[in-house]
Each structure stands twice: as C-alpha cells, then as structure tokens.
Amino acid sequence: xxxxxxxxxxxxxxxxxxxxxxxxxxxxxxxxxxxxxxxxxxxxxxxxxxxxxxxxxxxxxxxxxxxxxxxxxxxxxxxxxxxxxxxxxxxxxxxxxxxxxxxxxxxxxxxxxxxxxxxxxxxxxxxxxxxxxxxxxxxxxxxxxxxxxxxxxxxxxxxxxxxxxxxxxxxxxxxxxxxxxxxxxxxxxxxxxxxxxxxxxxxxxxxxxxxxxxxxxxxxxxxxxxxxxxxxxxxxxxxxxxxxxxxxxxxxxxxxxxxxxxxxxxxxxxxxxxxxxxxxxxxxxxxxxxxxxxxxxxxxxxxxxxxxxxxxxxxxxxxxxxxxxxxxxxxxxxxxxxxxxxxxxxxxxxxxxxxxxxxxxxxxxxxxxxxxxxxxxxxxxxxxxxxxxxxxxxxxxxxxxxxxxxxxxxxxxxxxxxxxxxxxxxxxxxxxxxxxx
Length: 437
Description:
Elements: E1 5-8, H1 12-23, E2 28-32, E3 56-59, H2 66-76, H3 80-87, E4 89-90, E5 95-98, H4 100-113, E6 117-121, E7 132-134, H5 142-152, E8 157-163, E9 166-168, E10 178-179, E11 191-196, H6 198-210, H7 231-235, E12 263-269, E13 276-279, H8 288-295, E14 306-308, E15 311-317, H9 320-323, E16 329-330, E17 333-338, H10 348-366, H11 379-390, H12 415-436
Parallel strand pairs: 1-2, 1-7, 2-6, 7-17
Antiparallel strand pairs: 3-5, 4-5, 8-15, 9-13, 9-14, 10-11, 11-12, 12-13, 16-17
Helix pairs in contact: 1-10, 2-10, 3-4
C-alpha cells in the first residue's frame, strides 16, 4: 500500500503525529503492535492513546501555568488529543481530567475514520529507511530498542514509572470522606478527601515503608523520575515528606472539625460516570496484596474495592539533546524523527505536543516547505528546545514543561506578575510564528 510516511506507535504522540500529517494531506501508515498479538507491561487494550497512569492532563490554566499554556497552544494548532480531551472532560477543578475509556475511544475513532490514515497492527523491529516518525513511547519493544541502540551507539537511559490505583466510588465511606477541592477551587465536588490524624498518618507511613515491594530483578539501580515517584519511596525520605506532598491536608476543611486534617488522601474522578476514582499521587511498587491491605487502613477506604491496583514498569528514552536535530530528526539517519516520551519529555500532554510538532515538521519537509521551530518563548518551543539541545546530554532526565524552560523575562519584575508575563509573551510569539507559517 502506498504511504508518504510511517508513524510507529499509536500512543498519544503517535496518534497526534498521524493526525497532523493526515490533516496536511499526506498518506500515513500507522503501525501499532497492540492488537496484532503484542502488548506492553502497562497497557490493557488496543485503543490508541490509552492512558496507562493518571487520567489527568494537569492544569488547564493558560494564564499562570506552563501546562495550561501548552494546552492552549495545542488547541490553536488543531490538536486531536486536546479536542478529544475537551470532549471527554470530567470534573477536576482547574485541571483537565478525562474519562480515560471515552477519550481513547474518541481518538481511535477519529484516526480510524480519517481517509489518509491506514492502520496496520504490526510490530516494527527495525528503524525504516523511508520517512518515519518513531513514537513508541517508554515501553518500546525490545527488538526496535536494539535497532535504535545500534544506530545511535548510545545506551538508552531508563527510569521507573509507577501507576496509581483506582477505587470504585460506591466502596468509599462518605460518612468519613468528603467532597472538596483544595482551597475551594472548582465546584466543590472535584475531589474526595480522606482525613488522617497524626497517629493514623504515622502508622500509615511506617506500614508503607515496611510493606512488601515488587522485586527489581533486571531493573536494579535504575533511577526514578521525580514527577512520578512511588509513594513508598517518598516516604523513605522522611516521615513528614508525604504531608508536604500528595498527603498534605492544607486547604481542606474537614466537615467534622471545621479544620484542616493532619494529613489527607485525595481521590480524583477517573471516568465520566463518576464510578471510578484514582488515588492522587499514590503511584506505587507495593505488591498487590499489600496495596489492598494498606490502603484499606486509610479512613474512608476501609471497604475500598479496587478497579485497578498500582504497578511498576520500566521506561526508556533517548539522549535526545545529543542525538536529535532541532526538528526532531535523528542526526545519523535524518529520514527518521522521534516523538513523545521516547525523546525524554514527561507527561501525557508533553508527549502529545512533541508528536504534534514532529508531524508538522515531517509534513512540511515532505511537501517541500520549511517550517521553523516554534519560538522558545512559547510552551511548545521551550519544551522542544530543551529536548533538542538546551538540556545537558550527560545528565539528561525526563522533564515536564515548566516556566524554568522559558527564556527569563528581562528586567526586574514582581514574582506575582511573572507567570502572566510569560504566558502573555508566549501568546504573542505563537501568533507571530503562525502568521509567518
């Protein structure tokens, strides 16, 4: 079958890249191994853009948050991922969270229906010699990983990524737990909160540290990514660590006391029906039986029924600042671009964003056009620049988009005004880039 370009991988980045290419009028072969007899340790189905960890795309505040700004930029660029995210949105305060099944089904339906996309359920074992975008994510099949390693001459870096458990809503004791967003944001029903007093908190932390963990085996000595740290690893850093992280009680008014609890566990809606809620920040490598036993000691979760327990998988990524050019092409084989988490960006939206710009770069090249990278003052440009050269290659680690990647605002500014200055400047820069486009 004729195609102009092959996209390998049907995750968020691959789906977005395929969509951008198809919308530009190019014929795309989308190769996805799930559904063709293969799978990964983290995926459960064969739909495109499956969300294997949280169901949150994080903040949707485009005025004071770099992630929200990236959302806004992607919407302006016709992102399929943001379109379906908005369509399948569930309450989450100022965050964009989605019904994970509805979202993935929507992306799959859109890709399947596009006349310029041919879906092939196949495992690709080697880098192709024709135009391609590799968006196989952090769980790239071993054979393709070997091909990439042979081409780059570099060992892939790796880290653990842990998955948080999901609880059935009707098994939560709402006589103990209550609905409230921190500081009263949202409509007041976006999060369920389970309070712990000092004695309960300290007992929980001790049990967490003592709990039986998954064995490392061949994954020994691989560093964790700070943004997805297993909760028991955080607990080992100090008994109070969790109270200043995922279990902080500040900004939550416990109905029975009218005061902030000593600590709290929050759950966030995970599907449109509101029947499933994930335990926020509770990524874990505890064994499944230990998770059930320990998490049922949390007040309000004594009779919790789990739709999914936490897990652990190994992520790999390229040393991208050294290996990729400014348009995400592999320097040693420029017919191949990389996109998504395999480039070392971290997060659903960041992965989709790099898929989006990889698709646009490839479309421009195949059509004989030149597309300049987005300005570094934009969220997309700042993230791309970090991946393709601004970061130190020797110490390169996965990174979420944040204002620390942006050029500083010149002159002296009030800290309270700085975020709005970043986002205002970014919108102007994006408008100029699109106009020059």
